[in-house]
Description:
- About 45% of the residues lie in helices and about 10% in strands.
- It has helices at about 15-30, 35-40, 50-60, 65-85, 95-105, 120-125, 150-155, 170-180, 210-230; strands at about 5, 110, 135, 165-170, 185, 200.
- A six-stranded parallel beta sheet has the order 3-2-1-4-5-6, sandwiched between helices.
- β4 (about 165-170), α8 (about 170-180) and β5 form a beta-alpha-beta unit.
- The longest helix has 23 residues, at about 210-230.
- It is globular and about 50 Å long.
- The protein binds 1,6-di-O-phosphono-beta-D-glucopyranose and magnesium ion.
- Magnesium ion binds near residues 10 and 169.
Amino acid sequence: MIRGFLFDLDGVLVDTAKFHFLAWQRMAGELGIAFGHDENEQLKGVSRRASLEKILAWGGQTLPEAEMEHWMTTKNAWYLEHTASMTSADVLPGASEFLRNAHQAGYLIALGSASKNALPILEKVGLLNFFDATVDGNDVTASKPDPSVFLEGARKLNLQPHECVVVEDAAAGIEAALRAGMLALGLGAPEALPQAHRVLPDLQGQDPRSLVADLETRAAAAHSAADRAKTPSTNLPS
Ligand code: B16
Ligand code: MG
């Protein structure tokens, strides 16, 4: 039985991806590395250090640790300049209502974000009070698709993994949810998140209880189909 939700932050509750993009693009420009939307897409859910390593690799560059630290600090300062003016108007469509309804319906709610800036951003946009537990980039170092961030979230909620639904916008996050043994709801384009149990454009108009019932039905059907594929058919011609 599902008893809790684990929410990713960027791309699920707020659209901070555009600010990460602007900051990484500025840094890449200074290092002479091409950086566009396709590259940014591959950084969703990826930690700050792992993102920097990927960008440098795309540019065929390596840097000593002190310069890595410099660019991570500089990129973060640029990112924070962009997020400074965020308000409740920056919450993605349907997210506040969904959190409120899920809380009222008795579900436990945790954050599972790779971002070290997650808590001040949740506070700034007025969502922090909905959370029973938070896990962010300060608590875990392994990047999604490693499942640690969600397993730690379930542990903090005192729930088993199979009692949790993860809400994610990144393929790496969906993979992390499945590796954790949780149900995975994707937000975005279905073709970008083929592993999710279900994909929706956003949380607008979604009732938490109905959504959970639908996800459980889909997961049970997928499980039966996987079992059938494993069992040799008795009707094969001999
Ligand atoms: P920070 P999420 C992730 O947030 C972002 O998607 C990713 O682009 C970013 O690099 C990462 O947080 C680390 O963020 O630099 O603020 O620590 O999607 O896991 O909520
Ligand atoms: Mg995300």
